[in-house]
Write a structure and sequence with these properties.
The complex is a heterodimer. By secondary structure, chain A is mostly helical. Chain A has helices at residues 4-16, 20-50, 60-79, 84-105, 129-153, 156-175. Helix content of chain A is 74%, strand content 0%. The relative contact order of chain A is 0.11. The chains are: A mainly alpha, B mainly alpha. Chain B: InterPro entries: DUF4439, Ferritin-like, Ferritin-like_SF.
Chain lengths: 177, 146
């Protein structure tokens, strides 16, 4: 849809100058394309319905977050070697959380965060140590809150693990001061 | 394998932990000065507040309220600032573990309270670790039995 519309409109504008009949014809083509565009996703849905994948575990986002937090800390430790002694143990904690979350959710032990993460600040202009710590604290605070929310919503058998993860992230805020 | 504890059992256990924590902050506080003594007083107040809430909750629920004891055995003698700080770390980490044990047996507001206690005590343990010069400042799974 998104790709076809501008192309059709562009052609309409050009032909419009020479002949109005052609313009109507192109509009019909446009309508046809619009229909095609609308039906395509429905077909996709049908396909998915027939071959239903298992729903993702509700803890999958938390696992991704653990890996993102670990990656952010490791990137910051690389950028500021003098902070590494403080940052690397925190990264290892997040990795240990990811391992545990992978175990309880029955997923393969992950090695990389999913794309779309907001781990390290963009390269090129490396942030100073103070800014880096502020950024890391902000991520840990958000992580603490999401783990606390997951703990509140979880069945009993997962609550203790999630509580420990929320508490660990809260202690990281303290350790990054 | 033993049967899973009930909510009343884990709350009663948390109460006994709070009794012991309050008691321990006595010898801790006298070995500390200035900001550290103030932090110890704040920590003790937090444990008293949770003790009081637990006594009310358990007695209004018609459950058994475990009694306080006149004294508790310390894991090591507290003779100076360093040992006082080490004990403060232990006290916070141990009470955190009891509140962690409440999580699986609770839901809703009760679980929220248990989680707040776990987080607060874990953070306090990290602060005491920093004061004591203990590294690392954090543990991977606060409150988890090792």
């Amino acid at each position: 849809m998104v790709l076809t519309c501008p192309v059709v409109m562009g052609r309409t504008t050009r032909r419009d100058e020479s002949s109005p009949l052609t313009r109507r014809a192109v509009l019909r083509v446009g309508a046809f394309l619009a229909l095609g565009g609308a039906t395509a996703p429905l077909t996709g849905c049908d396909l998915l319905d027939r071959d239903e994948p298992p729903p993702p575990d509700p803890l999958a986002p938390l696992l991704d977050e653990s890996l993102r937090l670990a990656a952010g800390l490791r990137a910051a430790a690389d950028a500021h070697p003098d902070l590494a002694v403080r940052l690397v143990p925190l990264a290892e904690t997040h990795e240990a959380h990811a391992t545990e979350l992978a175990r309880v959710t029955g997923t393969a032990t992950p090695s990389q965060p999913s794309p779309g993460s907001t781990a390290p600040p963009s390269p090129g202009t490396p942030a100073g140590p103070a800014t880096t710590l502020t950024t890391l604290r902000k991520a840990e605070r958000a992580g603490r809150d999401s783990a606390a929310a997951a703990c509140a919503a979880a069945p009993g058998e997962r609550a203790a693990l999630l509580g420990s993860i929320a508490a660990a992230r809260a202690t990281h805020l303290e350790a990054l001061k | 394998m033993t049967t899973a504890p009930t909510a009343e059992e884990t709350l009663a256990a948390a109460l006994t932990a709070e009794y012991a924590a309050i008691w321990a902050y006595g010898p801790i506080g006298v070995r500390l000065a200035d900001a550290e003594r103030k932090a110890a007083a704040e920590a003790e107040a937090a444990h008293r507040s949770r003790r009081d809430a637990l006594v009310v909750q358990l007695s209004t629920g018609g459950g058994r309220v475990p009694p306080d004891r006149p004294g508790y055995a310390l894991p090591f003698p507290v003779t100076d600032r360093a040992s006082a700080l080490r004990l403060a770390v232990e006290v916070e980490e141990r009470t955190a573990a009891f509140w962690r044990a409440v999580l699986p047996t609770s839901t809703g507001a009760e679980r929220d309270r248990a989680l707040s206690a776990l987080i607060e005590y874990a953070v306090r343990a990290t602060r005491w670790r920093r004061a004591a010069g203990i590294t690392p400042l954090t543990v991977a799974f606060p409150g988890r039995p090792s």
